[in-house]
UniProtKB/TrEMBL annotation:
UniProt-listed InterPro entries: ADP-Glc_PPase, ADP_Glu_pyroP_CS, GlgC_bac, GlmU/GlgC-like_hexapep, NTP_transferase_dom, Nucleotide-diphossugar_trans, Trimer_LpxA-like_sf
Pathway in which this enzyme or protein is active: Glycan biosynthesis; glycogen biosynthesis
A GO biological-process term: glycogen biosynthetic process
Protein name: Glucose-1-phosphate adenylyltransferase
Domain Glucose-1-phosphate adenylyltransferase/Bifunctional protein GlmU-like C-terminal hexapeptide: 306-409
Function: Involved in the biosynthesis of ADP-glucose, a building block required for the elongation reactions to produce glycogen. Catalyzes the reaction between ATP and alpha-D-glucose 1-phosphate (G1P) to produce pyrophosphate and ADP-Glc.
EC number(s) recorded for this UniProt protein: 2.7.7.27
Length: 425
């Protein structure tokens, strides 16, 4: 990080949009918003955007919350309370419906910022960085802010380079050789290619850098427009492409990689299949995402737990784990694990067999259970002898089974199964 980029980061406030429902994660977001969903053994999804901000030198952060926000707010209070006002640091939690003297939900991503302009203005920052709180990646935002200042852009848009064949599901930027955005096309059938890279397209990451006063004026003008949906991607960015200067910032220029990460890593874990895959990928011998990189730590709330424990050493009852990640407080009691990721405090009891299991905190797995390719929500108690992942039709009747063959198991599903078992007894 150069002195110039560090100076610019200190003049910036990061505004994290963390109110999305995340409905494609199905029952995983029944009790919590998508940014508060657990990821990687001990973190939550929002920790990546927040850690990127802190590691980039940005110490003024606002988090706009909305749907099912309690779990997220509790996590922020427990894990992100180390900011000190006397060091010009702050983290503001900004719930919807409590601003501007009304009871409005945030109507769109831009409205979430508009309703909190007075708070941002009070910090007297020079730049505002708008972030989505629901993606997994490591990025030095200071480099993007530096490009914004040097280019003289009205807004700089963070973009990921994706294969053109896969870009139709994104908002795609058509750019010239100097990264100026000529056109912003939502989910195009024929995505425009990057200059010099005919097989790649630039897709918006939902990350924007603005000069603060310019943003305030823009938001107030948009708020006064009755035809606007008050959304950055739908309203403000297309308007600036047509009438202003919009510059793209390819993610590859500022992504943070350790020596073991071969290429830029960015994931939207917005479906159960994608969520399971991204977690299980961390158990690879050399995973594409290095969460062990001490030079770019992922900050989070760390519970005080004893070390993981593996017990019993009898034939058929041996506590062991192969190609797996096992968090603190877990007890593997005579269970066999293969390519699993267990969050804090999971108990796997004797004679159980787990393959491709992502278990949230404090899951209990009963004796003789056989689980294959499942995601288990927090605090679920798996009954003795339960078999999941071997009979697709039966799994689909009992649990949420995805197109990719992953089963999501929640407490309500287990309660219904127990009621059915009791009724048939």
């Amino acid at each position: 990080m150069s002195n110039e980029s560090q100076r610019l980061a200190q003049q910036t406030m990061a505004f994290v949009l963390a109110g999305g429902r995340g409905s494609r994660l199905q029952e995983l977001t029944e009790k919590r918003v998508k940014p508060a969903v657990y990821f990687g053994g001990k973190t939550r999804i929002i920790d990546f955007a927040l850690s990127n901000s802190v590691n980039s030198g940005i110490k003024r952060i606002g988090v706009a919350t909305q749907y099912k926000a309690h779990s997220l707010i509790r996590h922020l209070q427990r894990g992100w309370s180390f900011f000190r006002a006397e060091r010009n640091e702050s983290l503001d939690i900004l719930p919807a419906s409590q601003r501007m003297g009304d009871t409005n939900w945030y109507k769109g991503t831009a409205d979430a910022v508009t309703q909190n302009i007075d708070i941002i203005e009070a910090y007297n920052v020079k730049y505002v960085l708008i972030l989505a709180g629901d993606h997994i990646y490591k990025q030095d935002y200071s480099l993007m802010i530096q490009q914004h200042v040097q280019s003289g852009a009205d807004v700089t848009v963070g973009c990921i380079e994706v294969p053109r064949a896969e870009a139709s599901g994104f908002g795609v930027m058509h750019v010239d050789d100097d990264d100026n955005v000529l056109e912003f096309i939502e989910k195009p059938a024929d995505p425009p290619a990057m200059p010099g890279h005919p097989d790649l397209a630039l897709a918006s990451m939902g990350i924007y850098v603005f000069e603060a006063n310019f943003l305030y004026d823009l938001l107030r003008k948009d708020n006064a427009n009755p035809d606007s949906t008050n959304d950055f991607g739908h309203d403000l960015i297309p308007e600036l492409v047509a009438n202003g200067k919009v510059v793209a910032h390819p993610f590859s220029r500022s992504c943070v990689r350790s020596s073991s990460e071969p290429k830029p890593y960015w994931r939207d874990v917005g479906t159960v299949d994608a969520f399971w895959q991204a977690n299980i990928d961390l158990t690879d011998f050399v995973p594409e995402l290095d969460i062990y990189d001490n030079e770019w730590p992922i900050w989070t709330y760390s519970e005080l737990t004893p070390p993981a424990k593996f017990i019993h050493n009898e034939e058929g009852r041996r506590g062991n784990a192969v190609s797996s990640m096992v968090s603190g407080g877990c007890i593997i009691s005579g269970a066999q694990l293969e390519r699993c990721l267990l969050f804090t405090g999971v108990r796997a009891h004797s004679y159980s067999t787990l393959k491709g299991v992502v278990a949230m905190p404090y899951v209990v797995i009963g004796r003789h259970a056989r689980l294959t390719n499942v995601v288990i929500d927090r605090d679920v108690v798996i009954p003795d002898g339960l078999v999941v992942g071997e009979d697709p039709e039966l799994d689909a009747k009992r649990f949420r089974r995805t197109e990719g063959g992953i089963c999501l198991i929640t407490e309500a599903m287990i309660d219904a199964l127990n009621d059915e078992t009791a009724a048939n007894a």
